[in-house]
Amino acid sequence: MTGVQNISVTDDEAGMRIDRWFKSHFPGVTHAQLEKYLRKGEVRVAGGRVKSNRRLEAGENVRVPPLSDRATTKGVPHARAKEDRAFLASITLYEDDEIVALNKPSGLAVQGGEKTARHIDGMLAACEQDGVRPKLVHRIDKDTGGLLLVAKTRKAAQALAEAFKDRQVEKTYWALVVGAPRPREGEIDMPVAKRMVRIGNRGVERVVPADGEGAKRAVSHYQIVEDIGRVSFVAMRPITGRTHQLRVHAAAIGHPIVGDYKYGGEASRVDGVADKLHLFCRSMTFQHPKTGKVMTITAPVTGAMKDTWAFFGFDENATVEWPEDAA
C-alpha cells in the first residue's frame, strides 16, 4: 500500500478532468472506486471535495488516499507488459537514469480518454521500477508525431515540468502547410481561447483566435524551409504552449497544416498527400534535470510525413536556426 499522497497539477495537466487525471496517474483504479473516494472525501482538490467532472488548474494539489500496488501499477499482465516495454524501446531515441526521449508515432495518444485504450501513459506502467513509474511531463496531440520527453524520477519530473511551464524548453516542429506564408519568416502573436462554435447542427468546443474573457496570449514563430508553391515545408516554434496553438495559428493566417481538418477544413486537403495531420515535433533543447547540461534531442521524421517528404523531395535532414532574440 502507498501512503497518502499530495500531487501538484502540472501546467500541461491544466484543464484535465479529475477522473481523467486520476486514470492517467493511477490506471488500476476503476471509475467506480474513484467515485467512492470522491463521495467519502478521500480524494480532494485544493483541500475541498469535488466531483469527477471537476477540471484541474495548474498548481492545485490533489490528495490521493492510500492505494494498493495493483492500483498504482495497473497489474499489467506479464505478456502485455513485455509487449509494451518492447514497443517503448523501439521508439526510444535517448535514455539515461533521469529521462527518456521517445519518437511518438502519429495516431498514438499520449494519455487515455474516452474510447482510448492504448496510449503512452498506460504503457509506462510496464516500466515501473522500485515503485517509481516513469511520468509524462508534457503532451503532444494524438495525431502529431515526434519527440516526447518522459521523466524516470520524481525530481526529474518536477524539474522538467517547471522548465516547460517557464518556457525554458525550445521546441521546433516541422509542418506541411497549404501555400506559402508571407513573409517567409515571421511571428504570429494571436490570443486564443476555447469557445463553443457551431459545426453543422451541433455546438462543439474549439480553440479559436479570440479576445476578451478567457483569451490567452499565444505566440508562434515560423520560417519556410522549402517552398514549392502549392505547399511549403515550414518550421514552427511555439513560444507559448497553448492547446493546438500551431494548428490554430497556421489556419488563422490562411495557411492551414495539411490534413488538419479540425481547424483548416477542406482547405487543408492536398491531392497526392496522405489524409493525415502533417505536424511533427522535430527537436527540443533543454537543460538536463540533474546535470544542468544543455542538450538537444532531434527526432527523425516518421510515418506519413516521411512519405510526404520523399514525395516532394524535401530534405529529411534539414536544419533551422532561430534568432536568439526570438525566445
What's the layout of helices and strands?
Blueprint: E1 5-8, H1 18-25, H2 31-40, E2 44-45, E3 61-64, H3 69-73, H4 78-90, E4 92-95, E5 99-104, H5 120-123, E6 135-136, E7 145-151, H6 154-165, E8 170-178, E9 185-189, E10 192-199, E11 202-209, E12 219-227, E13 231-238, H7 245-252, H8 261-264, E14 279-287, E15 294-298, H9 303-312
Parallel strand pairs: 7-14
Antiparallel strand pairs: 1-3, 2-3, 4-5, 5-7, 6-7, 8-13, 8-14, 9-12, 10-11, 12-13, 14-15
Textual characterization of the structure:
The chain is an alpha+beta fold and 327 residues long. Among the domains are: 1-72, Structural Genomics Hypothetical 15.5 Kd Protein In mrcA-pckA Intergenic Region, Chain A; 170-318, Pseudouridine synthase, CATH 3.30.2350. It is built from 9 helices and 15 strands. The protein has helices at residues 18-25, 31-40, 69-73, 78-90, 120-123, 154-165, 245-252, 261-264, 303-312; strands spanning 5-8, 44-45, 61-64, 92-95, 99-104, 135-136, 145-151, 170-178, 185-189, 192-199, 202-209, 219-227, 231-238, 279-287, 294-298. The strands form 3 sheets. Strands 4, 5, 6, 7, 8, 9, 12, 13, 14 and 15 form a 10-stranded mixed sheet that branches. A 3-stranded antiparallel sheet has the order 1-3-2, with no helix packed on it. The chain is globular and about 60 Å long.
